[in-house]
Amino acid sequence: MSDKWLEHLEKTVHEAAETITALRDEKQELASRVEELEEEIERLSAEGGAETGDGGGVTDAWQEERQEIRRRVESLTEKLEGLLDGAS
Q1: In this structure, what are the phi and psi dihedrals at residue 56, rounded to the nearest 5 degrees?
Q2: Are 20 and 84 in contact (CB under 8 A)?
Q3: Cα dist from 46 to 43, 56, 59, 60, 64, whole Å
Q4: What is the dihedral sign for C-alpha 53, 56, 59, 61?
Q5: Of 20, 26, 33, 25, whose CA–CA distance to 68 is shortest?
Q6: pTM of structure
Q7: Which residues contact 40 (CB under 8 A, 6 or more apart)?
Q8: CA 7 → CA 2, 10, 11, 28, distances in Å?
Q9: Residue 7: pLDDT above 50?
Q10: What is the DSSP string of 11-27?
Q11: Tens digit of each residue's pLDDT (9 = 90 or more) over 30-85
């Protein structure tokens, strides 16, 4: 009997585990960044310096970046959950 299928399975499982670890790390980094940005938005808003004279303001840019990061974190979370559900 050939053990190649078992070797391939082991390799696939190890690669999946490495991917899950990397995604968890990235998720944590992105969640930390979202928190930092939310704190910065609150600080700028409290100082009253968040608006610029162009009508859009810095707050809009911060909100857009915050939404993008949140979207990415949610996407990574869904991927992790999918991988973990598939491993069960």
Answers
A1: -90, -50
A2: yes
A3: 5, 17, 12, 15, 19
A4: negative
A5: 33
A6: 0.50
A7: 62
A8: 10, 5, 6, 32
A9: yes
A10: HHHHHHHHHHHHHHHHH
A11: 889 888 888 888 887 777 754 445 455 667 787 888 888 888 888 888 888 787 77
The DSSP result for 18-66, as a single string, is HHHHHHHHHHHHHHHHHHHHHHHHHHHHHHT-S--TTSSHHHHHHHHHH
| Residues 32, 38, 40: CA angle, nearest 5 degrees | 105
Q: Is 50 helix (H, G, I), strand (E, B) or coil?
A: coil
Q: Which two tokens stand for residue 58?
A: 């810095």
Give dist(CA 82, CA 76) in Å, integer: 10
Amino acid at residue number 74: E
**Residue 7 φ/ψ, nearest 5 degrees:** -60, -40
Distance CA 3, CA 5 (A): 6
Residue ranges per structural domain of the chain: 4-87
